[in-house]
């Protein structure tokens, strides 16, 4: 029951406009068995809100800038922070393995465009970037398939006089266009046929589910290829089935592949033939060894160090220091925090409510410890665990503002939000939201840990 207009909601300034005529019998979450969705999403495991998040052009512009600028700055870390010193880079990212590091830098220096997703929270001080995810395994773009359903449910999105004022960026179409653009840019297609090979690991429970995933991606790809006068498609299989053919191209039987994507984060080992083909410029492979460097969460602390030294342009230094919260690798050393120098371990132990500990290579909310939601003993255990590992970060806790949104009982209650903003090269790919009730919040807001997903619309005057 909505009793009065509210501004601090997921609808922002458009609360009254959207709630005035919302039918009370519509469920708070999308029922995938009731509404038409692609087969792959028929049994979608995460709840999707029937209500959109509605943001202003200013907020969209802010996210646009961040998704395009930050990945470019990350790409400069090997040269600007490590001075391309193989030994230092190996010690930081690859456990001292200099041979692997050599290959990683060879991949990185090819400077191919890679998709990214920034995870942010909107705090009382504005947006804060909690992490930067890179590569093909960045999830969330699938949710755009629910957009047409949500549009049907809300009159401002369907009425002729207002519908054109609301845009939900089609992340799927932007992503597929980005992939095809990159394949064509490197002149990998020679006979008007473009094929993409995808490794999904154990994402599918059986062959039927695997084929639904393939059909979903294949449908998106074929639509883009048809618009360009091309043929081809998407294929799913194990990387080990690919073979190196003439002139360094990758084949499965007689089918030539122009891109290899790895969707599963817990992926199989990449065979040498794929790296050979990539280094010979015969395949678009965004999940190469260099991507491991770009995706390390400790990079946020390195960016802040460089910005504090004034290494980047004045504009980029300001952007880093404004949007990236204080971050440091968990080590027994002194740090500067809020204009004071402290022993990091003592600072964390004495101020647990101000910090979060994360695995530098973690995903789906795994190995994340939020001090304010842990007992003193649990927090000390987390510090000791992180200290015993080489790749954990301490990050200043950035608390989301409260935004009213409907809960499972269809009551509007405060929620905490995580924003997932997509960047594909020079193109902003839109944003989606994960949210959880503030009453049950434990600091980790992730689809895999029970968060609700939501489509985002931008309103235009």
Description:
This protein is of the alpha+beta class. It has a domain at 187-283. Helices cover 32% and strands 23% of the residues. It contains 15 helices and 20 strands. The chain has helices spanning 15-19, 57-74, 77-80, 86-93, 98-108, 147-153, 155-158, 171-185, 207-227, 272-279, 289-294, 299-308, 314-323, 344-350, 376-387, and strands at residues 53-55, 115-123, 126-134, 166-167, 193-199, 231-236, 243-244, 250-252, 255-257, 259-262, 327-329, 334-337, 340-343, 355-359, 368-370, 392-396, 403-406, 412-424, 427-437, 452-459. Strands 1, 2, 3, 4, 17, 18, 19 and 20 form an eight-stranded mixed β-sheet that branches. α8 crosses α9. The two termini are 29 Å apart. Mean pLDDT is 90; it is low at 1-6.
Features:
about 30% helix, single chain, 8-stranded mixed sheet, disordered N terminus, 4-stranded antiparallel sheet, about 450 residues, alpha+beta, 15 helices
Stretches where pLDDT is under 50 for at least 5 consecutive residues are: 1-6
User: What structural category characterises the helix and strand content?
Assistant: alpha+beta
Largest sheet: 8 strands, mixed
Helix content: 25-40%
List the helices and strands and how they pair.
Elements: H1 15-19, E1 53-55, H2 57-74, H3 77-80, H4 86-93, H5 98-108, E2 115-123, E3 126-134, H6 147-153, H7 155-158, E4 166-167, H8 171-185, E5 193-199, H9 207-227, E6 231-236, E7 243-244, E8 250-252, E9 255-257, E10 259-262, H10 272-279, H11 289-294, H12 299-308, H13 314-323, E11 327-329, E12 334-337, E13 340-343, H14 344-350, E14 355-359, E15 368-370, H15 376-387, E16 392-396, E17 403-406, E18 412-424, E19 427-437, E20 452-459
Parallel strand pairs: 1-20, 5-6, 5-10
Antiparallel strand pairs: 2-3, 2-18, 4-20, 7-8, 8-9, 11-16, 12-13, 14-15, 14-16, 17-18, 18-19, 19-20
Organism: Chitinophaga rupis
Protein name: ATP-grasp domain-containing protein
């Amino acid at each position: 029951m909505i009793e009065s207009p509210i501004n601090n909601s997921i609808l922002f300034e458009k609360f009254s406009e959207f709630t005035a005529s919302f039918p009370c019998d519509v469920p708070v979450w999308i029922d995938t068995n009731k509404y038409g969705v692609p087969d792959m999403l028929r049994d979608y495991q995460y709840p999707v809100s029937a209500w959109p998040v509605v943001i202003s052009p200013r907020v969209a512009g802010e996210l646009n800038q961040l998704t395009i600028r930050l990945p470019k700055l990350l790409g400069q870390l090997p040269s600007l922070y490590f001075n391309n010193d193989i030994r230092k880079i190996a010690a930081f990212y690859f456990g001292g393995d200099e041979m692997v590091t050599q290959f990683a830098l060879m991949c990185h220096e090819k400077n191919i465009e890679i998709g990214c997703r920034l995870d942010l929270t909107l705090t009382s001080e504005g947006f804060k970037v909690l992490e930067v995810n890179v590569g093909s395994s960045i999830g969330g773009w699938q949710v755009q398939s629910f957009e047409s359903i949500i549009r049907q449910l809300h009159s401002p999105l369907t009425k002729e006089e207002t519908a054109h004022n609301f845009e939900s960026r089609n992340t799927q179409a932007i992503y597929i266009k980005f992939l095809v653009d990159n394949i064509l840019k490197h002149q990998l297609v020679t006979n008007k046929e473009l094929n993409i090979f995808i490794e999904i690991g154990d994402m599918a429970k059986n062959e039927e589910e695997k084929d639904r995933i393939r059909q979903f991606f294949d449908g998106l790809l074929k639509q883009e290829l048809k618009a360009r006068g091309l043929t081809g498609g998407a294929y799913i299989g194990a990387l080990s089935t690919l073979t190196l053919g003439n002139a360094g191209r990758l084949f499965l039987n007689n089918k030539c592949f122009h891109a290899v994507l790895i969707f599963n984060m817990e992926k199989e080992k990449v065979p040498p033939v794929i790296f050979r083909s990539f280094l010979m410029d015969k395949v678009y492979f965004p999940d190469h060894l260099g991507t491991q460097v770009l995706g390390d969460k400790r990079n946020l602390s390195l960016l802040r160090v460089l910005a504090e030294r004034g290494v980047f342009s004045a504009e980029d230094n300001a952007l880093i220091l404004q949007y990236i919260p204080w971050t440091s690798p968990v080590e027994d050393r002194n740090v500067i925090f809020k204009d004071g120098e402290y022993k990091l371990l003592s600072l964390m132990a004495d101020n647990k409510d101000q910090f979060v500990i994360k695995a530098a290579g973690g995903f789906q909310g795994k190995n994340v410890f939020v001090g304010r939601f842990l007992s003193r003993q649990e927090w000390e255990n987390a510090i000791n665990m992180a200290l015993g590992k080489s790749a954990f970060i301490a990050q200043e806790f950035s608390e989301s503002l409260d935004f009213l949104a409907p809960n499972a009982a269809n009551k509007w209650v405060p929620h905490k939000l995580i924003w997932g903003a997509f960047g594909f090269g020079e193109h902003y790919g839109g944003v989606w939201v994960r949210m959880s009730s503030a009453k049950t919040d434990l600091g980790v807001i992730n689809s895999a840990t029970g968060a609700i997903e939501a489509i985002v619309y931008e309103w235009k005057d």
